[in-house]
Specification:
alpha/beta
């Protein structure tokens, strides 16, 4: 298919983008309902800077990076059984309280370090992690996919079980 549907969370609408024209072809309103899937690339940075407002209590303690705060908020916007996919800073790998809380209260599906130098052409040398979480506990869930992708081809191979009928796909009917 040559189109993508983009959820405009703030305006409660969906825009349909034609990939050949790179243009929005239509937009329609939606109800203010919890989402089934949310993709996020939250802001990153030390939590202590207060750049994004006064710290709010986190269910697991003090975050290492402000991206954790945004990810926790995003989990409140997805329905039970829904999925959050985040491009996160590698600092989350040094945040055991955050990862433990995710594993105890939700279903961690994948935590994969993206290929090194992925953002060099965009003027930054930061590295990132792909974090995939299903809201709530999924019974009999597989162990999360963990790995480090050396290339985008390897990243595609690592995320393959998350799609369709793969071992880490969202359960049917949710």
């Amino acid at each position: 298919d040559r189109e993508v549907w983009v959820v405009n969370h703030i305006s409660d609408s969906v825009s349909v983008v034609d990939l050949d024209l790179l243009n929005v072809t239509r937009t329609f309103r939606t109800d203010d309902e919890p989402a089934d899937v949310i993709f996020t690339n939250p802001p990153w940075g030390k939590h202590s800077t207060r750049k994004y407002g006064k710290p709010i209590p986190m269910p697991y303690g003090q975050p290492v990076d402000v991206a954790e705060r945004f990810f926790v908020k995003t989990l409140t916007d997805v329905r039970e059984g829904g999925r959050v996919v985040g491009v996160m800073p590698t600092t989350i790998l040094k945040s055991p309280k955050f990862l433990r809380w995710l594993g105890e209260t939700h279903t961690l599906r994948a935590i994969i370090t993206n290929p090194p130098h992925s953002y060099d052409s965009r003027g930054t040398t930061v590295d990132s992690v792909l974090l995939v979480v299903d809201k709530g506990k999924v019974p009999d869930a597989q162990e999360p996919i963990r790995g480090t992708a050396a290339s985008f081809g390897e990243l595609a191979r690592l995320v393959e079980p998350l799609a369709g009928r793969g071992s880490h796909a969202r359960p049917r009917g949710i």
